[in-house]
From TrEMBL:
Transmembrane feature ranges: 46-64
Keywords for the protein's UniProt record, in alphabetical order: Membrane, Transmembrane, Transmembrane helix
Record-given protein name: Protein MGARP isoform X3
Species per Swiss-Prot/TrEMBL record: Ictalurus punctatus (Channel catfish)
Pfam family, one: AIF-MLS
Length: 99
């Protein structure tokens, strides 16, 4: 108990000093100027909108084409996978042994 009190008395002025210094530093910051126009207002983001929109449209067209044209291949693949022989399930020993 004595050590805690001694440490508190020793370091509390230091802590108070660092806290007040931070408050002073935040008050001395020069305010930033506001921009005269909104960001992207002059059409600079138009390129990004066109590129992202084109990529989104191309992805949608690809998905639609793949889903609509590959349905026969998909059903053949599923029937082939379901037709494979499945080994009978055996529980593992506990604790698991390293192979």
């Amino acid at each position: 108990m004595y050590l805690c009190r001694a440490a508190l008395q020793r370091f509390s002025p230091l802590a108070r000093h660092s806290i007040t210094q931070r408050a002073i530093l935040y008050r001395d910051v020069v305010p930033q100027r506001l921009m005269s126009s909104v960001p992207g207002g002059s059409g600079e983001n138009l390129i990004y909108v066109v590129l992202c929109g084109g990529a989104f449209a191309a992805a949608g067209a690809y998905v639609y084409r793949t889903v609509s044209t590959d349905s026969a291949r998909f059903t053949d693949r599923v029937t082939e996978i379901e037709g494979r022989p499945k080994p009978e399930w055996k529980p593992k020993t506990w604790p698991a042994k390293k192979d």
